[in-house]
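Troubleshooting: if your tokenizer reports a length mismatch, compare your output against this known-good record of 230 residues.
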Amino acid sequence: MPARNVVKDYLKNGYYHIYNRGVNKRKIFKKEQDYKVFFSYLKEYLEPRDEKILRTALEETPWRKRAGILQKLNLNNFSKTISLLAYCLMTNHFHLLIKQKVERGIERFMKSLATRYVMYFNKRYRRVGPLFQDTYKAVLVETDEQLMHVSRYIHCNPEELSSYKGLSLLSYPYSSLGVYLGKWKVGWLKPKEVLDYFSKEAREADYKDFVLGKEDGGDSLLFIKDLVLD
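Known-good structure output:
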């Protein structure tokens, strides 16, 4: 019998909690540069690409200087097939909340992202072999309530770090919570679908209270954690 959440039920316009960790729970992010590289791949894959502008620039650029433009044109782009709603990168695992616009869009995106990052990581640290523990896991989010609580679960992942690194959920730099609270903007992240469930007058404050557990004492996190993790 396959491990839970390995077999995917891909649906057009479906929402999914995607997660994976390092093989044998090893670190997949060792240095700050590793996080930055992972984010740079997300940006390249998810920012809309205007191919018409790029092709015009290609025609107007001397052939000896076309390499950068050609690289952008040839790079996979998934801005029309998926939307990233939330993320959190931890030292030995990651979480993504994704809306799939076309059937199996996530499959192609995750294959490209994982392959590219493993190649980078193995080259940087002079290693060979798999980096992730088997294939990524995917949980179909079936209700609006689940969508809100999965976003909360993802953003609460760094909570355990506060006890020994002095970090809090609100100061953790490798999750999308800062975007949700208006601290910074990320063009390739789409938090609106989650934030629309909160009041327009105090959306960021309400979401902050929701994440910090002031609405239900955090009990819903226990349900979500049991639902998604192996």
